[in-house]
Design goal:
single chain; alpha+beta; 4-stranded mixed β-sheet; 3-stranded antiparallel β-sheet; 4 helices; about 20% helix
Length: about 160
């Protein structure tokens, strides 16, 4: 019997900050780590997948929100960080760092979302500073704190 091919995650991902004009931010809680709140995030499905496509796909998979490329704002921020040891098994042997690209999506108002039950258990909308404090990921929190800059407002 030939073993199934092992598919490792690509160490390049997107982070999508979903927010309202009033700077409320959507956070979702991870199913595999209760208490770990985050924005939409996920790895590219293929090396040649455009980042905008990764962002749109992850947005829809994790929240049910469908957006167009024109609605998604590339913040042109990339974070390189150590992959948490608990998730390193998902990557090829020796891969310990990930590059994350930040995008923003402004929705007109707080809206209900449809979570993927395999990935997330709960969602909440919080004022951006409160959302940043609740995030377990430092790069996610830092991105949320930049939101006023991308909205043209003062911090």
């Amino acid at each position: 019997m030939i073993p199934a091919a092992v598919c490792f995650k690509i160490p390049e991902s997107v982070l999508v900050i979903i927010h309202t004009p009033g700077l409320e931010v959507l956070l979702i809680e991870r199913v595999d780590h209760p208490g770990f709140w985050q924005s939409v995030t996920g790895s590219k499905d293929a090396e040649d997948e455009p980042l905008i496509q990764s962002a749109l796909r992850e947005l829809q998979e994790e929240t049910g929100i469908v957006a167009t490329p024109a609605q998604m704002h590339d913040w042109r921020i990339s974070n390189v960080y150590d992959i948490y040891p608990v998730w390193r098994h998902r990557y090829a042997p020796g891969v310990t760092r990930n590059t994350e690209h930040v995008f923003g999506l402004c929705v007109p108002k707080i809206c209900a979302v449809t979570l993927n039950p395999r990935e997330h258990t709960a969602s909440q909308w919080l004022a951006y500073r409160d959302a940043a404090e609740k995030c377990f990921s430092p790069s996610n929190a830092e991105a949320i704190l930049l939101l006023p800059r991308f909205m043209g407002g003062a911090d």
